[in-house]
Amino acid sequence: MNEFENENFSNQASDENTAIAEAGKTGSLSYKTPVSTKKDRIFNWLRIFISIALLALIMFKNLENFGKIRFALLNINYLLVILSILLYVFMLWVESLRWDVLLRAQGVRIHRAYLFHVMYIGFFYNNILPSDIGGDFFRIYDICKNKKAPADKSASSVFLERFFGLISIIIFFAATSFSIYRLLKNYVILITVFLVMAVIMFILLAKPGLFKIDRIFKKFRKLQGIWIKIQSFSDAVMSYRKKIPQLILGLILNLVCQLIYTFIFYFVSKALELNIGISTFAFMVPVTYVLSGIPISIGGLGVRENTIVFLLVSFGVLNEKAVVFSVIILFIHIANGAIGGLIYLLRNLFFRTRGFI
Fold first, then answer.
1. pLDDT more than 70, % of the chain
2. Among residues 165, 168, 163, 162, which one has the least CA distance to residue 139?
């Protein structure tokens, strides 16, 4: 992994996507070190600034409530917070099972323990990169390099994971938005439009020929080679049409993950003695996930916390408790991200000696 460790992970996700596209039909992966440009560095520093500014905004708005925030932090139920952290570990394990199901549907068989630890490292990178897809590129690269998995099949399995995530979000959002609409009104409509656009984007990526994009690539000789790789990826995604049982199981596992994350929010609310039903968090979780995935900050930092505070206050929660709630969720992410970082540091020593790599 020395080559990969020297990569500049602060580059745009689009640079990494270009590297994935270098995979040929043989399934081998050619990963090129993205060149850090001045523009990339400016955007990354801008995201860092936005993350810090958004966190500072929460603190600035609550300077007068600092005493109440401190009191709420000292009086939370720490056992429920620990339970929430462990639930997050369990959720990542379920996500690794979902990944295994989708890989096996493509004929790719990898040790589940290996997939779990790669999933954890991917989560670590999701928390330090501009968006929450940086870890996806790491996972694709890792199993291609270390397990010789075909690039198109690896990429299609991760793509399907994201698509299932979108479907799960839509299901949870649709099931709860009617009861929430009276509180958020136009925000619900805005989120609905955003989700529709996301579905269209996924369809465009999965079946680009449906929108006649292939004609653009075929007009230019230099782009024809890229189109071959895009078509290879599209064929791998569309091959899942013949794997209905695996698709159903993958979607069920994704819904389980969404439900676990909802319970994490619910247990944190109980740790703060908030009187909010779990159906409210079934709405909050997908909204928070979608907005924090917008690549304007580092790992959703600041966006996630402000979204949580805004929604909780809209539901009648005291501002200081809403802030503490967001801090606990941030801590849960940091704690599990730190575990992923530690696994990455120890993987050469621990996993290689056990034959996982």
1. 62
2. 162
